[in-house]
Predict the 3D structure of the following.
Amino acid sequence: MFHSDDRAFDQGQVIHIRSAAPAKPAFGQPCNGCGVCCLAAPCPLGMLLTRRTKGACAVLGWDEAQGLYRCGALSQPRQALQRALPGWLNFLAGPLSMALTRLGRRWIAAGRGCDSQLIATVCPDIADNAPTHSAESHD
Ligand code: SF4
Ligand code: SF4
């Protein structure tokens, strides 16, 4: 995932991340689905879909087979829209899902590279048995 935005990250924020997730690559390297950015805060598309501005993005999904995180707006657009739309507009989730996939890929610039400058470190007190990381913004 790649986001051309500056999200408001909390310094020393603790995120819970799957132990099987790949390590976060350096800024500018190909996105590997580590999930760090989306677990720290939703991007503008995530904010729009979830109506939340902080914490892990609710549409972020885990791909068990691949062992990486995936943006649910792209991988499961229909479900993401069903969550986002009020009940009386749920019939639009199907027709709008293709548009969300297309626009979402452009919006988050999927596939271009990692634009997150967060630094993820394993919390030392729980490193033995829990996939918990601390993420810090880095300018
Ligand atoms: S953009 Fe970077 S931090 Fe976000 S999921 Fe991709 S590799 Fe991880
Ligand atoms: S909408 Fe997708 S890319 Fe944006 S924060 Fe959520 S999971 Fe990540």
Q: What stands out?
A: The pocket of iron/sulfur cluster (ligand 2) is lined by residues 1, 38, 42-43, 45-46, 57, 59-60, 71-73, 108 (CB under 6 Å). The beta strands are 13-16, 60-63, 68-71, 119-122, 132-136.
